[in-house]
């Protein structure tokens, strides 16, 4: 990938399991070493760079907002070009283009905050032993620390979703309540590419079921536009491989992602 190709390529990154290792407490995990710096540099050199996650933007901003890039210099004054990746949280229900300083919420989703607050309270009461994550606009029920609760958690979330007109999102060792809004990572990819018709390529890095729509959106763009190159990178995880059938490239662990990003920038 030469410099011109890099400037005309979009990059999308999931967070958990892709830019960070999976941990027992979602609030205590962070990006692997060099990931924030590598993405800051990539944002300054590529056509587009975004983190597209199930996490709220507020969480992502603490990891990636305002990070100074490191690595090799690429400009006349010896400084590496700096940028800020766009942050798309809650599968695209909210986003920030300035590192979290300004957060925009999808208007259709905004009225569901009180509904989700009540869901968090009821899940905490009804599912002792599960880890209930309050994301503001969604409620995630984690059972990684208590795998035997998986069936009960799934059944509870399904029943609650039916009773309150909500959507269900599944992942590895987690099941989540979401507003009944048609928004996923594929929609984020489609919107970003539609707004930038000059782009000739896109990469999506992911590891879980929620990343499949992003992979599929890139493939759709490549099918419609022969000059567009789609690269779908799956990051392996011992808990399963829900993306292997769609992936163009496999990485063994999240800590391999920054190295690949830097290799692409060196080539560019």
TrEMBL record:
This protein's pathway reads:
Glycan biosynthesis; trehalose biosynthesis
Reactions mediated catalytically: alpha,alpha-trehalose 6-phosphate + H2O = alpha,alpha-trehalose + phosphate
For biological process, the GO terms are:
trehalose biosynthetic process
Q: Which SUPFAM superfamilies match?
A: HAD-like
- Identification of the protein by name: Trehalose 6-phosphate phosphatase
Please state what class of enzyme this protein is.
hydrolase
Q: Which family does it belong to?
A: Belongs to the trehalose phosphatase family.
What Enzyme Commission number(s) appear in the record?
A: 3.1.3.12
Q: Which UniProt keywords apply?
A: Hydrolase, Magnesium, Metal-binding
**Entry keyword annotation includes Membrane:** no
Q: Which cofactor does it need?
A: Mg(2+)
Q: Which gene underlies this protein?
A: otsB
Any idea what job this protein has?
Answer: Removes the phosphate from trehalose 6-phosphate to produce free trehalose.
Superkingdom of origin organism: Bacteria
Annotated GO MF terms? metal ion binding; trehalose-phosphatase activity
Its source organism is Actinospica durhamensis
């Amino acid at each position: 990938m030469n410099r011109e190709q890099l400037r005309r390529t979009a990059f999308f990154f999931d967070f958990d399991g892709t830019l960070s290792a999976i941990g027992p407490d979602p609030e205590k995990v962070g990006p692997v070493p060099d990931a924030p710096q590598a993405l800051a540099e990539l944002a300054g050199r590529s056509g587009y760079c975004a983190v597209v996650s199930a996490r709220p933007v507020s969480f992502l901003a603490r990891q990636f907002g305002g990070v100074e890039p490191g690595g090799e210099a690429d400009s006349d004054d010896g400084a590496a070009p700096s940028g800020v990746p766009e942050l798309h949280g809650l599968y695209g229900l909210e986003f920030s283009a300035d590192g979290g300083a300004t957060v925009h919420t999808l208007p259709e989703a905004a009225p569901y905050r009180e509904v989700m607050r009540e869901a968090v309270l009821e899940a905490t009461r009804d599912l002792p032993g599960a880890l209930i994550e309050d994301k503001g606009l969604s409620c995630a029920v984690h059972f990684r620390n208590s795998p035997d609760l998986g069936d009960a958690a799934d059944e509870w979330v399904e029943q609650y979703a039916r009773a309150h007109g909500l959507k269900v999102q599944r992942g590895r060792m987690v099941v989540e309540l979401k507003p009944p809004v048609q928004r996923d990572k594929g929609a984020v990819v489609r919107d970003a590419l539609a707004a930038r018709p000059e782009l000739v390529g896109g990469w999506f890095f992911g590891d879980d079921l929620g990343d499949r729509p992003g992979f599929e959106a890139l493939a759709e763009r490549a099918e419609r536009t022969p000059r567009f190159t789609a690269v779908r990178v799956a990051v392996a995880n011992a808990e399963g491989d829900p993306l292997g059938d769609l992936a163009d490239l496999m990485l063994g662990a999240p800590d391999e992602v920054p190295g690949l990003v830097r290799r692409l920038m060196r080539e560019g």
